[in-house]
Amino acid sequence: MISPRNFALLAMLTAGAIGSWYLARPGDDADTDEPPIDTAYTGYYLKSARILGTGENGDLLYEIEADRAEQRSDKRIEFTDVRIRYSPDSNVPWIVNADEATLSENSPRVTLRGHVRAVSSRGFADHDTEIRTQYLELDPEKYLAETDQRVQIRIGARSLTATGMLASLDTNQVELLSNVSGKFAP
User: Fold this and answer.
1) Closest by CA position to 84, among listed 105, 74, 106, 69
2) Burial 58-70, CB ≥16 within 10 A → b, else e
3) Predicted pLDDT of residue 39
4) What is the CATH number of the domain that holds 150?
5) Domain count along the chain
6) What is the DSSP code string of 127-147?
7) Residue 122: which domain range?
8) What's the predicted TM-score (pTM) here?
């Protein structure tokens, strides 16, 4: 038989357990104004990615190859170790490499960063041509490459540096914007 003293102690412990459970239980979601946090990320990532871009007629125009591509929550795709080249049918012999690139959902431009290098064996003046910079915006559908950063251009034995450039890759024309200096070999 339980003594009155032990019964009172047991009743107090039971009441304490019920009270602590009541205070520690999860609150009702209707009590808070904050929306629930969705911790699941619904994006994707690809290793050894290959993205194809088509022209207005639906034919292959260019391809983006990257070691890794990752969709971000702000509707853009980030690429690492990137190579962009035009389709042989486009007759645009340029290949563009960079450490990183970004492609946004509502923009045809590809933003390239880090050791950007564009090369062509039939570049400007039909010479081997190389363009180097740390930042470049490429509109592959319009064949335009531009930067406001420092750029180094090598055309055959000639070498130029400038700040800012606009290049038309399909017509092999380049406009250097400022601080142009160069070295021309005979």
Assistant:
1) 69
2) eeebbebbbeebb
3) 54
4) 2.60.450.10
5) 1
6) S-EEEEEEEEEEETTTTEEEE
7) 45-183
8) 0.72
